[in-house]
């Protein structure tokens, strides 16, 4: 750049844009892998937190507490039936007052968290 100019030339701007594009091309695949690994780690941490919570509630209520997979409806409410198939979208924790190991409803069992 010349001493009297107060800006950048077109060639300088194009070089900067090209370098930025090359760096973005290199960084984006690594970024998407990092996001996927963080998402998996976050879900694992959520499951671990739910298991810790279930254990604490079992001690507090002096009842057996079960954790099972459930389907989450579009409105965000679980269908309250433990889903033994592999198409679950959430996890339900409940205290089993009735003693039959199945989650029935809030009158027979205590809903804790989903």
TrEMBL record:
Q: Where are the transmembrane segments?
A: 7-28
Cross-referenced InterPro entries, in alphabetical order?
Answer: N_methyl_site, Pilin-like, T2SS_GspH
Topology relative to the lipid bilayer, per the entry, is: Single-pass membrane protein
Keywords attached to this entry: Cell inner membrane, Cell membrane, Membrane, Methylation, Transmembrane, Transmembrane helix
Which Pfam families does the annotation name?
GspH, N_methyl
A Gene Ontology BP annotation from the UniProt entry: protein secretion by the type II secretion system
Domain General secretion pathway GspH: start-end pairs: 43-107
Cellular component GO terms held in the UniProt record: plasma membrane; type II protein secretion system complex
Q: Which domain of life is it from?
A: Bacteria
Q: Where in or outside the cell? A: Cell inner membrane
Signal peptide, first to last residue: none
Please name the PANTHER family in this protein's record: GENERAL SECRETION PATHWAY PROTEIN G, TYPE II SECRETION SYSTEM PROTEIN H
Q: How does it assemble?
A: The pili are polar flexible filaments of about 5.4 nanometers diameter and 2.5 micrometers average length; they consist of only a single polypeptide chain arranged in a helical configuration of five subunits per turn in the assembled pilus.
The UniProt entry's sequence similarity note says: Belongs to the GSP H family.
This protein is called: Type II secretion system protein H
